[in-house]
Amino acid sequence: MTTLATLTRVEGSMLGALAEALSDDEVLFIDRDGPSFRYVLNYLRDPFAKKPLVPRDPAEADFYGLPGLLGGSSTTEAEGGWKGESACTQTVTQAELIGIKGPRQFPCCDLRSCSLRNMNLTDWNLQGCNLAGVDATGAYFSKTSLAECNLAGVNASHACFHTCSLMAANVSGANLQEAKFIDTNLGYAKFTGANVRRATFKAPLLDEEREQIEREAAPGDYFGPPFGAKPPNLGPGHYPPGHVSRSVGAVFEVRNR
Q1: Bridge partners (DSSP) listed for residue 175
Q2: What is the C-alpha separation between 23 and 6, in angstroms, rounded?
Q3: What is the pLDDT of residues 73-90, one digit of tens each?
Q4: Would you kindly state where each structural domain of the chain is located, as residue ranges?
Q5: pLDDT tens digits along 193-217
């Protein structure tokens, strides 16, 4: 037994396509070698493993559409479709970050074992890094390069993304509640299932980028539970500036550039 999230973690796989086509009462049965399937499941649980277990029969990787199962990087290495490079192999430890002041260069590194909580990352180069699941609560990303990063499942609540680049980043499943995106480049970023409740997106932001975020992010209401009633006695001056999204609970201040 496994979960739908596990089966669909690697975009474009045969298992993902089959699982997404199932109705609620259907059971998926695959007539393949049972012992080899444990390797498939282990890979889907952690596509970023440095040394994935290799199946008994390499043909299983081709059958399931999982080239990364054999030790290379898959074409889409994370839930949401992060197109990470296989060069993202250098691991950065928490000890290497302690006491750091000023801009640093960590392009294409694995920072999953680190905490960025309340850190000032002004002018840091983190392009192409793997930050999946990292605690970045209250972090300050100013002029930070996060382009092409994997931020799937990151906790960046109350973080500030000021004049930084999230170009083509994967932010799927991230907690972005009450985060601030000010003059942030969001081109081609993926927000599938992200929590953007009470987040603020300030210009420049294209209309189509707002529409994408509202389409992909997790449903929610700015004021209360998803799509709940507004609290009473909220008069002028108590509403957040800009337009509150009814579908995802974020505030958008949009102007076309």
Answers
A1: 155, 195
A2: 17
A3: 433 344 445 555 445 668
A4: 4-70, 82-257
A5: 899 999 999 877 778 888 999 999 9
Q: What is the pTM of this model?
A: 0.66
Structure-token pair, residue 192: 């599938």
Long-range contacts of 59-63 (CB under 8 A, 24+ apart): 60/32, 60/33, 60/36, 63/14, 63/32
Tokens of 121: 């990352």
Phi-psi label, residue 143: left if phi above 0, alpha if psi -120 to 50, beta otherwise: left
User: How would CATH label the architecture of 4-70?
Assistant: 2-Layer Sandwich (3.30)
**One CATH from 3.30.460.80, 3.40.50.150, 2.160.20.80, 3.40.50.300 for 82-257:** 2.160.20.80
Structure tokens at 49: 């493993």
Buried b / exposed e over 90-114, threshold 16 CB at 10 Å, is eebeeeebeeeeeeeebbbbbbbeb
Phi and psi angles of residue 96, each rounded to the nearest 5 degrees, phi first: -75, -20
